[in-house]
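Hi P.,

Sorry for the delay on this. The queue was packed all week, but I finally got your sequence through. Input first:
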Amino acid sequence: MDLFRSVRVVTGASGDGYVDWSAVGEAAKSSTEPGSLDLSDADRSGYAADVRDARQRLRTLGDIEFDLPETIEIQNRHHWIDENVDTFRRVMAPVEAGGPNTPLLPDVSRVVNTGTLTVMMAFLGRNVLGQYDPLLLADADPADRDHALYFVHPNIAGVAATLNVSLPRFRRWIAFHEVAHAAEFGAAPWLPAHLENRLERGLDALSAGGLDREAFAELDATMTAVEGYAELLMDRAFDDDYADLRAKLDARREGGGPVARLTRRLLGLGLKRRQYERGADFFRTVADARGIDGASAVWERPENLPTNAELDAPERWLARV
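Then the structure:
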């Protein structure tokens, strides 16, 4: 880890855009240890078995047909940063291309933006455990896109040790959660286009200097459903109760120093936790009333997604759908 080099790269940010994306990747990696990928044979076979078992159990539980991504990677932190710098660059391209206002001091603004994103990518790179990536806003036609599944092994191993929990059990829990997201997108082929539409509307408004609150509200409601349904599947499919894992992980996230707490707040990670809880409460109520099949009806068509109001009043969704 070389913090001096990271700062030097950020302050030397160049180019014509709002962000020097190459500098973001280089600086984030310079300030982050990559972590070891020296996996034992048991580790490698364990990841494969966890993903395979999760797929089988989730397909049986929800009667959902879905395929695993062709890309399933065990990554270190630098690998994750590289993948996600590309994702952020792709998502922010409409804003960079369509922005009507030129900053008063563009070079200074570029350095500030580059530094902000560097801090964000470095922090996430040190904390993300697993990720299902549907590759939204990719250049390829949606029908031709692959999706991807990543496990950041140094973070998984480090958190398991910090929480004093079994690494194989913790790794398996993360695998089940990420494969549950693959199940959702497999059950709803229309979901990537739905998310992209709301995301593009919101970004187009931002690039024009405005704010499409409706688009972002719909995006938030959809992601709340995505996170909540995954929690429901986890409840029913995982090997045993995992309340202890969730409690220990939540306690860890709420702890840390003031800088870590501030960074989580600025990144909206508390909001993401709220999405988990709100979505899970909604789907547990629906599943108690109508079973997993009833809850899975949410993925039959976009109109079946719960509205913001229905997320807090599942009986209204049940009456409508």
